[in-house]
From TrEMBL:
InterPro entries: RAYT_transposase (IPR052715), Transposase_17 (IPR002686), Transposase_17_sf (IPR036515)
Source organism, top-level taxon: Bacteria
Protein name, per record: Transposase
Species name: Methylomonas albis
Membrane spanning stretches: none
NCBIfam families named in the record: REP_Tyr_transpos
Domain Transposase IS200-like: 9-137
Length: 166
């Protein structure tokens, strides 16, 4: 088994990519996006953090999260969000991907990929680079021709705050 090394910086800001199982487009509907929002809020009540930026695409999401001082446990937060989403999604008869019997024995479900990708943001330049990547992602995937055209993104908040031009 691979030995994954993660960078834990208390109070740090991190860029994340979280992907659905086999890139199924389960996040392409309002019910799923509302449920994801509820999962994030429920997690924030138990383990505070700030969502600096977020974009939700049909089969994955990117987020920049900031953790409170002294706290570096983003893994527990993503575990909670994915579990909460999965439980409520399946309870609402949301579809899941078929999974192998070994994954079933591990109590996995066919909603999210097991892991996520994270990057500890080192400085303002690194933060800005990942912020741009996050907001440009719907264009990169051919979903829209302009970041301003994708409604499921924090891009619009950054325009309102004067960070980006419209």
């Amino acid at each position: 088994m691979a030995n994954y090394r993660r960078c834990y910086i208390p109070g740090g800001s991190y860029f994340f990519t979280v992907v659905t199982e086999r890139r199924a487009p389960i996040l392409a509907n309002d019910a799923a996006r509302d449920l994801l929002r509820s999962a994030i809020r429920a997690c924030q009540q138990q383990w505070p953090f700030t969502v600096d930026a977020l974009v939700v695409l049909p089969d994955h999401l990117h987020a920049i999260l900031a953790l409170p001082p002294g706290d570096a446990d983003y893994s527990i937060r993503w575990g909670f969000i994915k579990k909460y989403f999965t439980q409520h999604w399946l309870a609402a008869n949301g579809p899941e991907q078929s999974i192998s019997s070994s994954k079933q024995q591990q109590r996995r479900r066919g909603v999210w990929q097991r892991r996520f990708w994270e990057h500890a943001l080192r400085d303002e330049r690194d933060y800005a680079k990942h912020l741009d990547y996050l907001h440009y992602n719907p264009v990169k995937h051919g979903l829209v021709t302009s970041a301003a055209d994708w409604p499921y993104s924090s891009f619009h908040r950054f325009v309102n705050e004067g960070v980006y031009p419209a």
